[in-house]
Amino acid sequence: MKKRNVALWVYFAFLIMPIYWMLNTSFKTNNEILNYLHWFPHNFTVQNYVQIFTSPFWRRGFLNSLAFVSMNVAIVIVAAVPAAYAFSRWHFRGDKHLFFWLLTNRMAPTAAFIVPFFALYSNIGLFDTHIAVALAHALFNLPLAIWILEGFMSGIPKEIDETAFVDGYSFPHFFWKIFRPLISQGIAVAAFFAFLFSWVELLLARTLTSTAAKPITVTLSRSLGAGGWDWGVLAAAGVLTMIPGALVVYFIRNLMAKGFAMGRV
Amino acid sequence: MKNRAWWFLLPALAVMSLSAFIPLMTVINYAQYSVFPGSAPQFIGMENFADVLNDGVFLNSLRRQVLFSIEILLIEIPLGLGLALALPKKGKWVGWSLVLLGVPLLIPWNVVGIIWRVFTRSDLGAVPAIFNWIGYGAYNASLNSGDAWWTVVAMDVWHWTPLVVLLCYAGLQAIPEEFYRAAKIDGASAWSTFRYVTLPKLRHSLILAVLLRFMDSFKIYAEPFQLTGGGPGNSTTFLSIYTSRKAIGGFNMGFGAAVSIIYFFLVILISWLLYTIMMNVGGGSSQ
Fold it and tell me: Are A11 and B104 in contact, with CB atoms under 8 Å apart?
């Protein structure tokens, strides 16, 4: 009992250390960062954060990211819900093959797709737009969302659909009034994964944008490559990109614990 | 009814054709041509593939990539399983442990690289100071290729072990208490309880964890790109870094396309092999 607790504490310390060091760095001046090795800031400053919030350069990066992430979530959910319904309710020719083909796309190495994506989106005039990044991320998010939603929908008995049709519900009415509330948890999970991937991905987002739609992750890695860097500002920006994810986990922690207890997820 | 299914699939198929089918066709098409900017593409058949397979840098990246994925699986799967067993089953710490485990998974991948760069750089990081203190003052991840390699491995363990822990923990919670009670009544030792009750029940979680960790470690890009840039030399140039260099920076797009196809098929092939092996091994010895 004692030994396992020690192991857990060591592991959690390992988990926190790099994040703490980044937080620590973000509150220091560049002089202190480069010349002294302090375990906590001696000249505490929020100047790095002020610089980010007052600079349109950084602000635009955050807004661009939010734009294509929300577009991606919307596209994925709108396309995945009917597709998952079809897979869970009907058998049709080639359904298994199609389902498997969708899943192989989740395995595709992102780097293998940057040449054709770049060529395709340049040719149809979508290069450097939010929608291009959103569509490209759908390659990975849509199969996963269909897979998750199909699981949730298959757990709902078919009799519910049939009873509703006998009772004279039209399909859209049935879907919105009866079916949607039943799968709302599945939609939330699928949306969460779509949000997650789109927010953390770099390679596609960098390939498909140059200036107008440049996301925060790219802003970060470009400013890192530019030579004389501002480590304090970089650390502060890194801390800020961690906030949306941390908020998401914080709000779903009870849901997560409950889901785990029921053996789902 | 049958035709109705296709109408429901239409939006998904439209999106997938723009984001998967057309790009895949393009890349297969490109791979058979010599494509230089500013001149007409020339059909050369399988020549690009032969060039790729004879390229020493490609073969070295491939070898490095395979080694990396093996090391990652050997470290992260046992560690994740052990930690999942050690986590409390109920009580107030469960929620907070899960939150803490979730955090690394939600950080943008290149920010993970930046965090580790700030953490390990010799002029401003904590790691060199700690190594210096325990007597390894020569640590330098941007000059010494051995240090760079193990720093990337440590970063990946930091970043992705929580996923293995969460998957295993979910699997553990799903095992009914009765199984353990029965094992206790039979007088089973802790090890045989683990071996004959816990492990077989965890098979699905473990297969999922191994497959996800394999596929994603084989695709790793942003974290090492940000931490080491693939260096020093080519010592941390993984397949994705090589591919994107050839695809964006290289002159012959056909060559880049051929690399992409070989890469894609390797991932599918190895995933399928792992899946088949694990299904057979697990099925043969457990029940």
Answer: no
pLDDT digits (tens, 9 = 90+) for B15-62: 888 878 888 888 888 888 777 766 677 788 788 888 888 888 889 999
Phi and psi angles of residue B34, each rounded to the nearest 5 degrees, phi first: -95, 110
Specify the 3-state DSSP secondary structure of B33: strand
pTM exceeds cut of 0.95: no
CA B287 to chain centre: 30
**A145 → chain B, closest CA residue:** B12
List the single residue in A14, A106, A265 with the smallest CB-CB distance to B158: A14
Contacts of A110 in chain B (CB under 8 A): 219, 221, 240
Query: For A3, which residue in chain B has the nearest alpha carbon?
Result: B86
Domain annotation covers residue B25: no
Cα(B92)–Cα(B199) distance, integer angstroms:
27
Fold (CATH) for A57-261? MetI-like fold (1.10.3720)
Integer Rg of chain B from CA? 23
Domain residue limits, chain A: 1-45, 57-261
Residues of B in contact with A258 (CB under 8 A): none
Domain of B237, CATH number, reads 1.10.3720.10
Residue B10 lies in a domain: no
Number of domains in chain B: 1
Query: Does the pLDDT of residue B286 top 70, yes or no?
Result: no
Between strands B42-43 and B33-34, the pairing is antiparallel
Alpha helix segments (H runs only) across B121-237? 126-133, 145-173, 177-185, 190-193, 199-201, 203-218, 222-227
* Any B CB within 8 A of A18 CB: yes
Give the domain extent around B112. Answer: 32-286
Q: Which residues 195-234 of chain B have a CB within 8 Å of chain A?
A: 215, 218-219, 221-222, 225-226
Q: Is position B9 within any domain?
A: no
CA pair distance A24, B125, nearest whole angstrom: 11
How many angstroms separate the CA atoms of A135 and A139, rounded?
Answer: 7
Q: Which of A83, A112, A256 comes nearest B98 by C-beta?
A: A256
Note whether A83 contacts B9, CB cutoff 8 Å: yes
A21 touches chain B (CB under 8 A): yes
Is residue A259 very low, low, confident or very high in pLDDT (cuts 50, 70, 90)? low
* Cβ within 8 Å of A, B 21-60: 22-24, 26-27, 30
Whether B17 is covered by a domain: the verdict is: no
Q: Summarize pLDDT for A13-58 with one digit per residue, the tens.
A: 999 999 898 888 889 887 787 777 778 888 888 888 888 888 787 8
CA-to-CA dists, residue A87 to A96, A223, B18, angstroms: 9, 45, 21
ipTM metric: 0.80
Q: At what angle do helices A114-123 and A130-154 cross, to 10 degrees?
A: 120
Residue B84 sits at the chain A interface (C-beta within 8 Å):
no
Rounded to 5 degrees, what are φ and ψ at A65? Answer: -60, -50
